[in-house]
Amino acid sequence: MKLIRWATLATLLFSLSSWAVIDVYDFDTPEQEKQFHELSNTLRCPKCQNNSIADSNAELAQDLRQKVYEMTKQGHEKQEVIDYMIARYGNFVTYNPPFTFSTAILWIAPLFVLMMGFSVLVVRSRRNRHNPAQVVNWDQEKEARLKALLKDESRGDKQA
Questions:
Q1: Residue 40 neighbours by CB under 8 Å, 6+ apart
Q2: CA 42 – CA 134 distance, rounded (Å)
Q3: Which residues of 90-112 are buried (b: 16+ CB within 10 A; e: fewer)?
Q4: pLDDT tens per residue across span 123-143
């Protein structure tokens, strides 16, 4: 009796996976299918931040995929679909936002950081070059000590 209960429970649990939904889209031409897949991988889900609408399982991403499918089936060009999504959700839906006043900081900030880092390196190197405290006086005593240390080290390797 226990075995029948466990078998029934296992069957029910395994059958739950059959309720998983897989979206199937029918297209009139292979070009439409190609355009749909390109747009699905190009457009970003506004809810998931860094996932494309093809990779996201959010309801908003599902709605966006459906809209892209409908517009593709109606014969809209790729750029028309992208323009519609930008008008509706803003530049965030594209992975490569255009250069506008609102996105200028995204494009200029990395250059600014690189220029500041380079200028700090140049200033510090010039300052260290002219600092007399950094100059080391190398005399015969230090040279003799270095040679003795190197000689002892080489002998130590041969003895071992």
A1: 52, 53, 54, 65, 68
A2: 55
A3: eeebeeebeeeeeeeeeeeeeee
A4: 988 877 765 555 567 788 888
**CA gap 65, 69 in Å, rounded:** 6
Q: Tokens 């700090």 appear where?
A: 120
E strands, the chain, where?
none
CA 157 to CA 159: how far, in whole Å?
6
Q: Compute the distance between CA of residue 65 and CA of residue 59 in angstroms, rounded to an integer.
A: 10
Q: Quote the tokens at residue 50.
A: 């860094």
Rounded to two decimals, the pTM is 0.55
pLDDT digits (tens, 9 = 90+) for 20-76: 556 778 788 899 999 999 999 999 988 887 889 988 888 898 899 999 999 999 999
What does the chain come to in residues?
A: 160
